[in-house]
Amino acid sequence: MKKLVFLITILLGLVQCSPKLIPVHKEPFHQPVFKSKNARILDIRFPPGDTCLFHEHVNNYCYVMLKGGKLATQSPGKKFNSFTLPDAYTGGEFELPHQPNVHRIANLDSDTLKFMAIENLRPTTHPIYKYHGHEYQTLIENNKVFRVVKIELPENSRHDLNFNTPTLLINRHQRPFILNNSQVKKVWDWWENGGEISIQNLQKETLEIHAISLK
Prior knowledge:
Elements: H1 2-17, E1 30-35, E2 39-46, E3 55-57, E4 61-67, E5 69-74, E6 81-85, E7 90-93, E8 101-107, E9 113-120, E10 137-142, E11 146-153, E12 157-163, E13 167-171, E14 177-179, E15 182-184, E16 188-191, E17 195-201, E18 207-214
Antiparallel strand pairs: 1-2, 2-9, 3-8, 4-7, 4-9, 5-6, 5-8, 10-11, 11-18, 12-17, 13-16, 13-18, 14-15, 14-17
C-alpha cells in the first residue's frame, strides 16, 4: 500500500511539473493583432531577461525579426539552446501540423526582441503565381506554405506587384512610403485577397519591405 501511495505521489508531481500547453496566440508575449479565415498575425516582443510560457504551434508559421539579438529556446524536458538571430532574419515552421512544435523562448539580449509572425490557417494549399526575379526583389523563402520576398527600394523609386494570394507586408523600419497612392507608416499591412500593389519610396533611405504570401 505504501508503494502504491508513493507511486501516485510521484505521478502527481510529474503532472504538476509538466508545462501547461497553451496555443501560441494565447501566450502573453505573442499578441494577436489580426485574424481572418486565412491567417493570424502576431506581434511578438520579449523584454530583456524575460522568458515566455511553454506554448504550442499547431499551424505553419513564418516570422521576420524586426529587432534581432541573442535568445534561447527550450523544448519540454530538454536543455535551453542559445543562438543569435540578426535583424531581418526570416524563419518559421513549414511542416506542421503533422507534429506540433512546443517550446518556450528566453531573451538573453540587452534589448527587446521583436518579431512579426503570421500563421497560415488555410486548410489546403492554393496555386500561387510563379516567382519572377526583379532587381528590387530577393527571394528569401519559397516552400509549401509560404513565399517570402524582400523588396528593397532605393530613393525615389517605385515598384508594382501583383499577388493572387493573401499577403502580409512588413515595413521593418516603419519608414513612411506610398502604398497605392496613399502614404503609410505602419509596421504591417494585410491584403486578404492579394491584388495589385504599388509601392513608392520618397525617402532618402532605402525602403525595406518583406512580403509574406500564403499558399
